[in-house]
Amino acid sequence: MTDLQDLYQELILDHGRRPRNFGKLEDANKTAEGYNPLCGDKIRVYVKVGGDVVEDIKFEGAGCAISTASASIMTGALKGKTRAESEQLFKAFHDLVTGHQQKSETQDLGKLAVFSGVSEFPTRVKCATLSWHTLRAALSGEGEVVSTE
Ligand code: ZN
User: Fold this and answer.
1) For domain 3-147, which CATH number applies: 3.40.190.10, 3.90.180.10, 3.90.1010.10, 3.60.15.10?
2) What is the pLDDT of residues 32-57, one digit of tens each?
3) C-alpha span between 9 and 14 (Å, rounded)
4) Distance between CA atoms of 102 and 105, rounded to whole angstroms?
5) More confident call, 34 vs 2
6) 115 C-alpha to center of ligand 1: Å?
7) What pLDDT shows up at residue 145?
8) How far is the centre of ligand 1, averaged over its atoms, from the C-alpha of 121 (Å)?
9) How is 107-148 classified by DSSP, letter by letter?
10) In this structure, are residues 132 and 115 in contact, taking their beta carbons and an 8 Å threshold?
């Protein structure tokens, strides 16, 4: 295992234990719930959208370290981003964890790059992408429960 992988693992464990932006966002105007039956991860994402910008974002839920860390790092990455930028990040992140990453996408990922190792564990991909699918449902205003199945 390389040092970089150790560092990545540290970050995931840290965010899994002490998730950032955790809790209910009282003035959210978009929300959705996500469920990953394969692992039992459950999440609710709250977003406050102003114009075209994600002004604030928080999440609640219970899940494994990867799903919690993914939601934690996602909320940090998306605050202040436009919808289009969020969509771009979703695509880059999805490509990363499914092992389809394009070279042009790497520079934008920042901390999200810690999930690169997930691509070697197909059953964990759904844990890592649950928060993103839920966010998408919230932004699109579907407001219903999304499932990874
Ligand atoms: Zn999980």
Assistant:
1) 3.90.1010.10
2) 999 999 999 999 999 999 999 999 99
3) 8
4) 6
5) 34
6) 13
7) 65
8) 11
9) GG-GGGGGGGGGGG-HHHHHHHHHHHHHHHHHHHT--SEEE-
10) no
Beta pairing partners, 45: 32, 59
Q: pLDDT tens-digit profile of 107-131?
A: 678 889 889 889 888 889 999 999 9
Q: Whole-number mean pLDDT of the chain? A: 90
Q: Which residues have a Cβ under 8 Å from the Cβ of 10 and sit 6 or more positions away?
A: none
State residue 143's pLDDT score: 57
d(CA 135, CA 30): 9
Q: What is the DSSP letter of 20?
A: T
* CA 111 / ligand 1 centre spacing (Å): 19
**pTM of the predicted model, to two decimals?**
0.90
Domain boundaries defined on the chain:
3-147
Q: Is residue 57 a contact partner of residue 21, using CB atoms and an 8 Å limit?
A: yes
